[in-house]
Write a structure and sequence with these properties.
Layout (H helix, E strand, L loop, with lengths): L9 H9 L42 H8 L10 H6 L14 E6 L3 E6 L2 E14 L5 E3 L5 E8 L9 E2 L7 E4 L2 H4 L1 E9 L6 E9 L7 H11 L23 E3 L2 E6 L9 H12 L6 E6 L2 E7 L17 E5 L2 E6 L2 E3 L16 E6 L5 E9 L2 E9 L6 E10 L6 E2 L9 E6 L2 E6 L6 E2 L1 E2 L8 E6 L5 E6 L2 E10 L2 E4 L3 E3 L4 E10 L2 E8 L2 E8 L5 E3 L9 E7 L10 E6 L2 E5 L4 E3 L1 E2 L20 E6 L2
Parallel strand pairs: 1-7, 11-12, 16-39, 25-29
Antiparallel strand pairs: 1-3, 2-3, 3-4, 3-5, 5-6, 8-9, 10-11, 12-13, 14-15, 14-40, 15-16, 17-18, 18-19, 19-20, 21-22, 22-23, 23-24, 26-27, 27-28, 28-29, 28-30, 31-32, 32-33, 33-34, 35-36, 36-37, 37-38
Helix pairs in contact: 5-6
Length: 605
């Protein structure tokens, strides 16, 4: 495994990374570029930067506590100073060095004692925010802290916190979107064919012109630890010679001589261009020791990121044990199915997976007595015929299969939960093999698996919880990196899908009601769907991810109460069977009762 690089001391990283965010960029930077002097007074040079509320902005004790729990947002090195402004005795407080991200429960004022207010705050830890801007998930019990709020003098309006938590700085998870910009930086996958995103949080207090410099430094410093098995870091020792600044209409990224070890500067430019898209759009030039190497634009090379080129979703329905095409909230009888789905497999279908190119399919069929048969089929590249292979027949629960597509490697592998364990199968081969999962002792009762658009990360529903892990091929077999469990307000999670390249959506329960939530891939952000799913009991879930350009979740489908449904953020609707279409010449449409129930729906992989 590639180890994290410590290219800079912590102090240098913090000072360089955030560029003294509260002070803006200095007027004279010392930056030298070929051509006109770089723009130093660009729009957004620190004026009006977004910073957390100070204690004086609070109108109630509850507001004061809430603002205290957001005050750590921003420059990590000065976080203790911002927090101490809220305290009655700031000089005696020892906050430690760790910022723990917590999901807050209901904040409420309990019975005050004289002039002392008491504000009770349940907090569920979800992760640790690192100086490199990423969140490491944690599994810790919920805590409740009762803050005592007082005035220094009876007549003083300003209130202070008397008893802050010791040895830790808590950060309300809402601050990750209120006071940070979630951004994706990118690294090439281990085959060098596609980019894999790595979620980071950029403080809004960093001035606009300083943001590209921070992003480039994060790329140079390498991926977060969990992503390392799936991606390629850059060579050690590459540094920014100057801040990344604009020269005319171009952003100039000037790297140290060590960057000459990068074999293909064009690929580095693509990697940086995608990483910068959340903070800068436009032409850019890559220099090494101020010598131009390659030029391009952040909007070029879209195909390097699979999430950007997925296109429109391809949907299917399962009706009366047969697969048909789907469109919107309808299932379409009489429409052609992909050639990769062998016709004799389209019966007694419980669940299925079909590749986007239509060349491969995997079907779970009911065979009686609670048993299920898994069969795969594919178009033979030599003969053009559709060949089928029986993967196996199994007792006990069998989940929905998914297809994997590894850039530069075999694209014929699939994953499927069988009796609570994750197995791989291959088109054209019989039998399955259990997937090697590092740290697999905690990963039991797997019910569902979903693959990210990049093909290098997966999400798993297991034991009522949700996990994410990297995925690759080791010694000819599928292997997962150590799984990371994410904390969710959803319990009894049974289904999972990728709603965006950096977020997953999970289905289960909230209290006694069916519920769906969208989680960031690190578990730091959670947004509940407000769909009103109370009458339902979710048994499975699939999703199609939105492109990186869209700030909203993609399409979500669930199976609940024996029926398939489309679920939106604020509502849900059952799938219906449309009037049969006129069949294509030579097609053999399967007759379907218009009143039949749509039992399942899924998207092409």
């Amino acid at each position: 495994m590639v180890r994290p690089r410590v290219a800079r001391t912590a102090a240098a990283l913090l000072a360089g990374a955030f560029l003294l965010a509260g002070c803006g960029i200095p007027r004279e930077t010392g930056v030298v570029v070929d051509g006109p002097v770089a723009e130093r007074d660009a729009e957004g040079d620190g004026t009006g930067a977004d910073t957390p509320y100070p204690p004086g902005a609070a109108k109630t004790d509850e507001e004061l506590v809430r603002y205290f729990l957001q005050a750590a947002a921003g420059d990590v090195s000065s976080a203790p100073d911002r927090l101490r402004k809220f305290l009655l005795r700031p000089d005696t407080w020892q906050p430690g060095t760790t910022i723990t991200v917590v999901r807050l429960g209901r904040i409420r004022t309990v019975q005050p004692v004289g002039q002392t207010g008491q504000v009770e705050v349940p907090m569920q830890p979800v992760g640790r925010l690192t100086p490199s801007g990423y969140v490491v998930p944690v599994i810790e019990p919920e805590i409740t802290h009762t803050f005592r709020v007082v005035s220094r003098e009876p007549t003083e309006a300003q209130r202070y916190i008397e008893n802050p938590p010791s040895n830790v700085m808590y950060l309300d998870s809402a601050a990750l979107t209120d006071w940070y910009i979630p951004v994706s930086i990118y690294f090439w996958d281990t085959t060098g064919n596609h980019l894999v995103p790595d979620l980071r949080y950029l403080p809004k207090s960093v001035p606009l012109p300083a943001r590209p410099t921070q992003i480039v430094r994060w790329v140079l410093d390498g991926p977060s630890e969990w992503l390392q098995p799936a991606v390629q870091p850059l060579p050690d020792g590459i540094d920014l010679r100057d801040n990344a600044v604009k020269d005319g209409d171009r952003l100039v990224v000037n790297l140290s001589a060590k960057a000459a070890e990068v074999k293909d500067p064009e690929r580095l430019l693509i990697q940086l261009g995608w990483s910068l898209r959340d903070t800068y759009r436009g032409p850019m030039v890559l220099q090494i020791e101020r010598q131009p190497k390659v030029e391009g634009a952040t909007d070029a090379n879209l195909s390097a990121n699979r999430a950007a080129v997925l296109g429109e979703p391809i949907a299917y329905c399962v009706v009366a044990g047969t697969i048909m095409r789907g469109r919107g909230e309808e299932c379409l009888p009489g429409t052609d199915l992909p050639a990769g789905l062998a016709p004799d497999l389209n019966r007694k279908v419980q669940s299925a997976a079909i590749t986007r190119d239509g060349r491969r399919a995997a079907v779970v069929q009911a065979v009686g007595n609670g048993r299920a048969q898994v069969v795969a089929s594919e178009i033979d590249s030599a003969t053009g015929r559709t060949e089928r292979s029986t993967v196996g027949t199994f007792d006990g629960p069998v989940g929905r299969p998914v297809w994997l597509a590894f850039p530069g490697e075999s694209a014929e592998r699939g994953l499927i939960p069988i009796r609570g364990e994750l197995h791989e199968f291959q088109a054209g081969s019989e039998g399955t093999s259990r997937v090697d999962i590092q740290g697999r002792s905690e990963l039991r009762d797997i019910t569902a698996v979903a693959v990210a658009p990049d093909g290098r990360r997966i999400a798993i529903a297991a034991g009522g919880h949700v996990y994410v892990a990297t995925v690759g091929i080791v010694a000819g077999k599928v292997s997962l990196g150590p799984p990371r469990r994410l904390v969710s307000s959803i319990s009894g999670i049974v289904g999972v899908g990728w709603s965006r390249q950096d977020r997953i959506v999970v289905g289960g329960k909230s209290g006694d009601s069916a519920a769906i939530a969208e989680l960031s891939v690190d578990g730091g952000i959670e947004e509940m769907f407000r769909s009103g799913l109370d009458p339902l009991e979710i048994t499975s879930l699939v999703a199609f991810p939105n492109s990186p350009a869209q700030p909203s979740p993609g399409l979500v489908k669930i199976q609940a109460n024996g029926t398939a449904w489309n679920v939106y953020v604020t509502t849900y609707r059952s799938l219906k069977i449309a009037e049969p279409a006129t069949p294509s010449p030579g097609a053999s449409p399967v007759p379907v009762d218009p009143s039949a129930t749509v039992t399942a729906s899924f998207f092409a992989d």
